[in-house]
Amino acid sequence: MSTPLLALVASRVRFEEKQLLDELDRRGIPHQQVDARSFSMELSAAEPARLPYRVALIREISQTRSYYAARLLEQAGVRTVNPSAVIEACGDKLRTSLLLTRAGVRTPRTAVALAPEGALAAMRRIGYPVVLKPLSGSWGRLVAVARDEETATALLEHRSALPAPQQHVIYIQQLIDSPGRDIRVIMVSGEPAGAIYRRATAGWRANIALGARPEPCPLTPGLAAACRDAARAVSGGSPDGTVLGVDLIEDLSGVPHVLEVNHNVEFRGFTTVHASPRVAEVIVAEAQRILGGAPCAP
Length: 298
Hints:
By secondary structure, the chain is of the alpha+beta class. It has helices spanning 15-27, 63-75, 84-90, 93-102, 119-126, 149-161, 221-234, 268-273, 279-292; strands at 5-9, 31-34, 53-58, 79-81, 110-113, 130-133, 144-146, 170-174, 181-188, 191-199, 213-216, 243-250, 256-262. It is built from nine helices and 13 strands. It has a five-stranded antiparallel beta sheet with strand order 11-10-9-12-13. A four-stranded parallel beta sheet has the order 2-1-3-4, sandwiched between helices. Helix 2 (63-75) packs antiparallel against helix 3 (84-90) and helix 4 (93-102) packs across helix 7. 40% of the residues are buried. The mean pLDDT is 90.
């Protein structure tokens, strides 16, 4: 029997993947980086796929490739972190919102219009200002705030002109009056590894990729409870073997509202604020736990 091999699925090695690979080396865990762009798998039932991996950390930057890589690996009996069902749930903001709402997780008021023509009425019901977001995407791209109907109309005209049909579905959220920051909590198997504030330095968006400043955030019982509920919601009630980034915003009374849940969480900003715990160490320790319970490859 050979040693179970761990795959780190990523077409780009960013800061986070480098940290994970270094931690795998430090622990002596047999592993291989798998470039999702080069991966293929035979689906024939007569010749079932026999892969050397027993656990795969899905760190692929492409939403489409990450989902299908997880599906294929799971078909071959590989335990994936995150599972394909979680990637699917988190990769579409409408699916995420439906799951959070069904689980009773507090979120900003949210509406979805299936075409730009129906969006103004939804915005009036919520009340300006509102935030328009694409159903998928990250780093704050194509996210815009409409503080009045004139701005909203201009934004909808832009969305109508985009070629992708998915961009014509308008996802609208209430803009919470907040202290000018949001919160990122990293969750590993349903438990918080730590939290940071992300304070906007230019404009209203608090994305690290857009220059937001990370600051220490106390992990209060209320914040931790909201994140546990969110992790359970997007994982079908069983967050074991998941690594998630829960983004929240506090209203002026300090009550947290879950904005979204990310399945390919970046943690560079976290490491500039917290020396401990090391996020890569927590993630790899969890993967090692899962690997230890996986059957060995023949």
